[in-house]
Amino acid sequence: MNKAESERLAARFEELGYTAAQSAGEADLVVLNSCVVRLSAEERVVNKLYDLRHLKKEKPGIVLALTGCLVDSDTARLKKRFPHVDYFFKAGDSPPWLEKTAGLLLPPRPAPSAYVTISQGCDNFCSYCIVPYRRGRERSRPFAEIVCEAQELVRRGAKEIILLGQNVDSYGRDLAGKPDLADLLSELNGIEGLARLRFLTNHPKDMSHKLIKAIANLDKVCEQINLPVQAGSDEILKAMSRGYTVDRYRRLVAEIHENVPGIAITTDVIVGFPGEGEARFGETLDLLSAIKFATVHVAAYSPRPGTAAARDLPDDVPPGVKKARLAEVERLQESIQAADNARLVGGTIEILVEGRKNGKWYGRTRADKLVFFSSDLDCLGRLVGVRIEKASAWSLQGVIKTENNIQEEQ
Ligand code: SF4
């Protein structure tokens, strides 16, 4: 979400004629987009803000702005704490000086893959999460506004749209007529020139049969889904206030696999949550081994002041144990991903090319696997066929098969 908002802001600044500086020292304007989902992230932003005090002293003309989750309604308190910061604006809002000058210049070309936010905030109050307190209750963007933005992005060259929300499965509940994510995907699927659609993040308690059918039936919706499980123990899920059991999660995954064969399911896991003894951690490992997720984002639990878990549950798993469990999940997942990627060697897969790194083009498959290949042609934003020759747990390497088509077009 923050990455999408940073990109949106950067694009608006480019519209106004700004160009990116190499460092804060060279900039006329510095905007910090803060994340406070973990305490360490919040501390990093605060330290950075204190560092910028020196810069403001050396260069009094520099404009400093802060956005993201650190900015709540009490901007007076923030101004007192960080008097050197010129502007504070909430996540998803636009800074006042940007509003005044909006629309004067032509918008820049978007990346092949563009993010579109469909809702802000969250109503779930998972016991460990600060998001509902900082980003507020869920607000869905109007259906027509999202469709319009997606059409415009595609008109300007985007090939893939990634819909974003803290919980995309509850999209539209607060709108007239209650359109849902499946309706939105079905509308966007009709945009000419759009090749791929993705969306994140899903919530297992809210994902509907209708959405699963939509993924199966709409040709542009990629066979990939992010479905955070967080833990493999019912007691821990209850303490997290996640609103589902392991059995419900397993049945949901089975239904998805049944309807969309070959789909890549990714997940998020928190290790070391209060009360997670060896046996309960073992249940998480069992679940990961059984489902064999395409990717697992794993984090060690750290209490966020202001959340129910920080208030009511003792942080009783020692840091060393959390670290060891995190490493164990990563080891297990690495072997699962290595085996999953190895079976792709020899096959040809469609890649949407997103950029160039270390002399090679890179892009992603519909299942969101990262693929590298070489070509002297301009492949950016193109859908190319790549024959996979090498695989590791993290990426694939291959040879382009559609070079002739590109040459003819160019
Ligand atoms: S669903 Fe839970 S973890 Fe996700 S943003 Fe909402 S409260 Fe946080």
Q: Which key features would you list for this structure?
A:
binds iron/sulfur cluster, 37% helix, 410 residues, globular, 20% strand
Description:
The chain is α/β, with parallel strands linked by helices and 410 residues long. It has 14 helices and 16 strands. It has helices at residues 2-15, 39-58, 75-81, 96-101, 131-135, 143-155, 181-188, 209-217, 234-239, 246-259, 278-291, 308-312, 319-342, 403-409; strands at 29-34, 63-68, 87-88, 113-117, 119-120, 139-140, 160-164, 196-200, 224-226, 264-271, 295-300, 348-357, 360-364, 370-374, 383-391, 396-400. Strand 7, helix 7 and strand 8 (196-200) form a beta-alpha-beta unit. Helix 7 packs parallel to helix 8 and helix 11 packs parallel to helix 13. The longest helix has 24 residues, at 319-342. The radius of gyration is 22 Å and the shape is globular. The protein starts with a helix and ends with a helix. Residues 100-107 have low confidence and may be disordered. Iron/sulfur cluster (SF4) is lined by residues 122, 124-126, 129, 131-132, 166-167, 203. Iron/sulfur cluster binds at residues 122, 124-126, 129, 131-132, 166-167, 203.
